[in-house]
Amino acid sequence: MQRLHTRRESLKGLACVTCLAIVLQGCATGQGAPPPVRRNASSLRPYATAPSPSVITEGELRDVRVATLEDAVRRLRPEFFRVRAAGVLGRIEAAPDVYVDGRYYGGLRSMAAFRPWEIVEVRMLSPNESAVRFGTSHPAGAIAVQTR
Q1: What are the start-end ranges of the E strands in 2-147?
Q2: Radius of gyration, CA atoms only, the chain
Q3: Are the CB atoms for 97 and 142 separated by under 8 Å?
Q4: CATH fold of 52-147, please?
Q5: pTM tops 0.90
Q6: Are 105 and 61 contacting, i.e. CB atoms less than 8 angstroms apart?
Q7: Higher pLDDT, 32 or 92
Q8: So where are the chain's domains?
Q9: pLDDT (tens digit, 9 = 90+) per residue, 4-48?
């Protein structure tokens, strides 16, 4: 009986050592680990990934060659200017309102007063998001502009 007990223990020990060796060999060869990411200069740009459909970043505004923020937004995200139909009781056509640094500034044409290099971010807010931030009077949403 004693002999059988020691044989089982030695087999358990051998199994543990074998498993440990396999695990360590897998770690040493790098199997299972993701390959290293190679980056070149073009991948280090701030918007190297696909730009967000609802946000225009400072980097995008810096690269566009236009005189006003309105022209930049028309070139980068023309869908911001699309007139939307909304309404509970019927069809209401409305354009988004513009807010600059959290304060109401005007309609879409009011963005012509700003230069692209003065802006940090332009964000299109859905009607629900704009209702939370600015009140319920925005059936087409709002455009939030953040300046420097």
Answers
A1: 55-57, 84-86, 92-94, 97-100, 103-106, 119-125, 142-147
A2: 29
A3: yes
A4: Ferric Hydroxamate Uptake Protein; Chain A, domain 1 (2.170.130)
A5: no
A6: no
A7: 92
A8: 1-33, 52-147
A9: 456 666 667 666 667 666 666 665 555 555 555 555 444 445 545
Rounded distance between C-alpha atoms, residue 94 and residue 97, angstroms: 9
Cα separation, 42 vs 32, in Å, equals 28
Contact 58, 118 (CB under 8 A): no
- Cα separation, 120 vs 58, in Å, equals 5
pLDDT at res. 82: 82
Residue 61 tokens read as: 């505004």
Residue with tokens 């089982």: 8
Single-letter amino acid, residue 132: V
Which residues does residue 104 pair with via DSSP β-bridges, in sequence order?
Answer: 99
The pLDDT tens digits for 46-66 are: 545 567 889 999 999 999 999
DSSP secondary structure string for all residues of 60-87: HHHHS--SSHHHHHHHH-GGGG--EEE-
Closest CA to 80 of 118, 109, 117, 58: 109
Q: Do residues 142 and 133 lie in contact, with contact meaning Cβ atoms separated by under 8 Å?
A: yes
